[in-house]
Write a structure and sequence with these properties.
Length: 162
């Protein structure tokens, strides 16, 4: 028997226009709708409806400011790899959420491999970074080890999957 339920619009695949809108908004999330519509070649009303639909479907999760951390006194960035002790593996979600709310943390990635998390941090100087690693990470009982890599420069990607 064939199902008569309509397809769920939340899981509807993106079409070429959706992808163009996303690509433009990734480049500049503050584009006025009329400029965005012109760039993707549709009427402003169509563009607004499509953008609102992408937000409603959860494809666009939000609009954020791209902050130059050096201009606000946090010019040193690092990626800190964190390995969690085997006994604490049942709390990985809670650990990740706690890390994400620590001052100076820009992003937390739960990853596969030799480490469990990559923590992207911004600090004012090496002393601030050292304090973060020793006091916020290494001193925690669930932390087995850390490895810190300094970020020299960041090159943002296109933001849209292939």
């Amino acid at each position: 028997m064939k199902s008569t339920t309509a397809p769920n619009p939340v899981h509807k695949p993106l079409d070429a226009l959706d992808r163009e809108i996303l690509a433009e908004l990734v480049r500049d999330g503050r584009l006025p709708n009329n400029v965005l519509a012109d760039r993707v070649g549709v009427a402003p009303s169509t563009c607004l409806l499509r953008t609102q639909n992408l937000v409603k479907r959860g494809v666009i999760r939000g609009f954020r400011a791209d902050v130059d951390h050096a201009r606000i006194g946090a010019g040193l960035q690092a990626m800190v790899s964190v390995r969690v002790r085997p006994g604490a593996r049942g709390s990985l979600r809670e650990i990740g959420e706690r890390l994400a709310h620590e001052p100076g943390v820009l992003n937390v990635y739960f990853v596969a491999g030799a480490f469990d998390f990559l923590v992207h941090v911004a600090a004012s100087d090496t002393e601030g970074l050292r304090d973060f690693v020793t006091k916020t990470l290494s001193s925690r009982p669930e932390t087995e080890s850390t490895q810190t890599s300094l970020v020299f420069e960041h090159f943002p990607g296109a933001g849209i999957p292939l």
